[in-house]
Amino acid sequence: MVRDIEGQARRGAFEGAAIGRGVYVISVAAELAGMHPQTLRVYERRGLLEPTRTGGGSRRYSEHDLARLRRIAELTDAGLNIEGVRRVIELEAELAELRAELERERELARLREKEIHRHYRRDLVPLSQAVVHVKSSQIRRL
DNA sequence: ATTCTTACA
DNA sequence: TGTAAGAA
What we know:
By secondary structure, this protein is mainly alpha-helical. Helices cover 66% and strands 3% of the residues.
């Protein structure tokens, strides 16, 4: 569809700066990833990737897709097969989500602790100012 | 030029 | 697993 790779890359860099929209046609995405178009199709069929589709049905790869392709390249070079790559990426996404959740919970805990200390200060009265009435029978018990 | 299917190293 | 050829 578009043979001008530089033109495509420029558009991708520009539009991608705003949002990670699908902009690259498969031939350009493959070129940028150092792979063959067929390889990208195989990855998609195996569930490693899911580029958006145009109304006509052709694939459009986003900057995020390219980043994923680079990650796939790292893992395959490390010796993982496609299924291994798929599971690693899946777990990495899950880990990132859990870490984000942990941070949110930590922030909530920090706010709750802060609130508790506020109550403490409001209820406490310095001993030097306290007026205490104690029966002599209670003092002996101490 | 892209899609999918089929075949090969 | 990745690549190539075929046809639409």
